[in-house]
Amino acid sequence: MRRLFESLRFKKLSLVSQGIYILLLILVCSSPIMAQQIKRIDGTTISTDSLNHYIPKLMEKAKVTGLGIAIFNQNKVLYKNTFGYADDVKKTALKPTANFYGASLSKCIFTMLVMKMVEQGKLDLDKPLQQYLPKPIYEYKKQTRWHDDYSSLKNDQLYQKITARMCLDHTSGFPNWRWDIADQKLKVLHEPGLHYSYSGEGMVYLQVVLEKMTGKSLEQLADELVFNPLSMKNSAYTFLPAFEKDYILGHDTKGKPYEKDKDNEARSPSTLETTFDDMTLFIEGLMQKKVINTHSTNEIFKPQIRIRSVEQMGPLSRKDTNAYDNLSLSYGLGFGLLKSPFGWGAFKEGHGDGFQHYMIIFPKQKIAVLIMTNSDNGESIFKELLALSIADQYTPWKWQRYFPYDSGMAKD
To answer: pTM for this structure?
Structure first.
């Protein structure tokens, strides 16, 4: 650019000519020739213009209402854009600053919070959580509508073995949610620490113990340890009045908006309210170790338990397969893990009515991608979009049930 200015002999031009040349420079800089190149995990590149051209077409084919995507090179965001609508009926544009329900991306935030407490010496990952409390968890008075009711554990000895590590790597033995059990009473279903079984209840149990230990709510701990340090000014574990002015609606497979859920109690694995901008800050913060140190980050990205289930959740989660042995499919702390030819990838999904998200980080390559959608069709484009954006052809889409929109495979 400096040579271009010099060749124009800028100082000798008339004011009119200067204006013309400035306009030309603006046009040159914004032309496809100057499109930024994004490095992918296999060493190839893709231009930002290619993504901007292709993504809307992909969304149209799959009937995805709105989408945000951010791609990270060298541990910092290189490309970020939003497409489609926050409300398909009103045709309100989806903005990166609008309130976005984060679903299970909540678990990533909570994992960072927990690891910060470990760094501070307030928590040991391998100490049974019950030992941090002066009385049994089931003797505490119920303070919420449901999630701190542990009365059903009175005659359950196994829960006393559960540690923070088990809660974060999904080996606590708790079900995903207590309402998945016939009598809807929380219980430990298998020996803690031995088997992977995705569990929101495990993380809620850890949350409740931390709240009773510290005398602080989840919201206070998240603000203090994660949100404020990363300048995530529009994130919380409950829907705040400030979010009323601009929030994104979820949409079903036909494009019909769901009613916004605004009365969730704060739950560490599932109630995150955030923005696309804030989640971008979180990933940068994790990759750049702005909150937790190298040791803690490595612990998150270290395999804790191998996974051999046919699918992540549902009936097939109880059946084993060797289909993913080539990926060394595992769970770390708060993240799933896979081993690609280009190093380990750490992934986390989010799934709720009308909201489907995915992120994957390749620490060795210093490359990551974040995808957030407000459509029940969102997961149907993840396979294609991951391959296009960062050449990730390793995410186990069948295990995740991310059936492509054009595959003819329907979710039952």
So the answer is: 0.90
